[in-house]
Write the structure tokens for this entry.
Amino acid sequence: MVQSAELDVAVVGAGFSGLYLLHRLRGMGLVAHAFEAGSDVGGTWYWNRYPGARVDIESQEYSYSFDEGLQDDWRWSERYAAQPELLRYLGHVADRFDLRRDITFDTRVASAVFDEAAARWTLTTDRGDTVSARFCVMATGCLSVPNAPDFPGQADFAGPAYHTGRWPHEGVDFTGQRVAVIGTGSSAIQSIPQIAKQAEQVTIFQRTPNFSVPAHNGPIDPGVVEAWNANRAENRQKQRLSAGGFISSDPTELLSVEVSDEVRRDTYEQRWARGGFAILGAFADQMVDPAANAHAAEFTAAKIRERVKDPAVADKLVPRDYPWGTKRLCVDIDYYETYNRPNVTLVDLRETPLDRITGTGVRTTAADYPVDAIVFAIGFDAMTGALARIDIRGRGGVALKDEWAAGPRTYLGLMVAGFPNLFTVTGPGSPSVLSNMVVSIEQHVEWICDCIGWLGDRQLGLIEASRAAQDAWVEHVNEVADMTLYKQANSWYLGANVPGKPRVFMPYAGGVGVYRELCDGIAAKGYEGFVLEPAAG
Ligand code: FAD
Ligand code: N01
């Protein structure tokens, strides 16, 4: 339970972001408390327990860097840690730094209202708690609100239905069952091979195929761990200054359009053999030059055709209508090979659209598919979803959802004009989901905490993004996105997966290192672009 109704900082969420915030704020001698809708810490890794869930960045890179002892003591077992291990890691962090005593679980923050006279935020929860805090940090996650399935007839379905983002804690046994999986994003690509190993029959309903690369997962190579630890400080610094927040992709300056066909093929083959996101570092022009991007797409398509035996099925699995990498690249274990199994069927919803769910299965315009269970792997209301579900009101009682009616607008993805002392972690307008998020989270947490400390040192009580700085930042975020191919995909980066959501490219595509330097420069100039006011009284 929250010990004090008068907090220095209220934190919403207890995933990677909320846990580090609590630890850091406490270390500054501040009274901080977190509220978490789940029953324990972990965020993404608490909720997403579907079979096959695992990280797409190498384990040692997808971990906190802020504490040497933590890094010395923790050992990852696999190259790409699976969800249970990631959840154990976050539980270990909570234990190690004794964080749970400052977290109220099973409690959803329903509203956060700024009281201008008192210069404080009042938060109310769905359990009737009210707390007041000088600062409020929304560590609510970019992918924490699953899209609710909304298929005609779904209430008629007699069997169980699951969403990958809200998987039952006790697990699901599909033995002997016929299972429908709707969706073919990362969650589906990870879970389908596992479900297919257990179920009698799996039918996959695909609207848009994704580009996926093999993880080549396995027990973590002790040599990798040794090399990482031998140069850990340097590696961590390289991550922080890199484009994507990870260094295992080993990016080159080579341009795909300038090398010979042979060099290009060899480069891609070598990176394919390394697995995972190594391919992202192959050429510097693949995300900005359509011709270079087409090379990556052609190479990946050829690999899909090698991996899938039936050419007609392979053909359906090849993405055609958006550039390579403009949706987060999937990292799979035997995804395409799973289509070679006799108990797996792919239904292309572009050819035969999903008509309705019936009492006994899924009906397309061409056929009925009787199933015992349905898995909805249909994604999230990303980046703004969790914030939109809290009634956040800033100056003059203005609601954040009204302020963002035409799409999110922030300064640096950290603050919103009209909402003083309210911070967002990895909010829209920051590199966020285009990066190794742990690196982006640490940078945000440290910037926010340093800012709060700086204000305290100067007897300043309020910080707020100026509208001019916010407008300029939004323009810059758009300009940078326009230099890339990202906007050519109907992705959740643009809000395209949620009917009625404004189409705005939400993350900052300028890179983690560039962004960090911008944020640090702004802080060094006395928080340029922010309006500062003395503490009340
Ligand atoms: P979250 O982990 O989402 O935690 C936010 C928490 O806030 C949640 O527990 C939620 O319950 C809580 N919350 C939200 N609203 C409220 C409210 N109103 N009141 C109370 N509590 C609230 N990123 C990568 O970089 N690499 C990966 O490989 C990767 N894999 C992923 C796999 C999956 C299946 C998903 C969904 C995401 C993945 N991500 C990955 C992104 C992942 O979300 C981040 O890496 C990271 O875990 C986010 O941490 P967070 O603390 O910011 O948010
Ligand atoms: O969700 P998604 P996700 N009818 O939105 C389909 C991270 N993550 O949970 O593209 C039929 O990507 C939809 O089709 P379409 C990662 O950042 C990482 O898989 O809209 N189909 C799509 O195929 C990722 O990007 C990992 O045409 C419908 C799928 O559902 C993000 O989370 C693992 C539909 C949704 O794909 C989200 O991934 C998991 C409908 N009405 C997640 N509505 C790692 O590997 C939606 N779809 C680390």
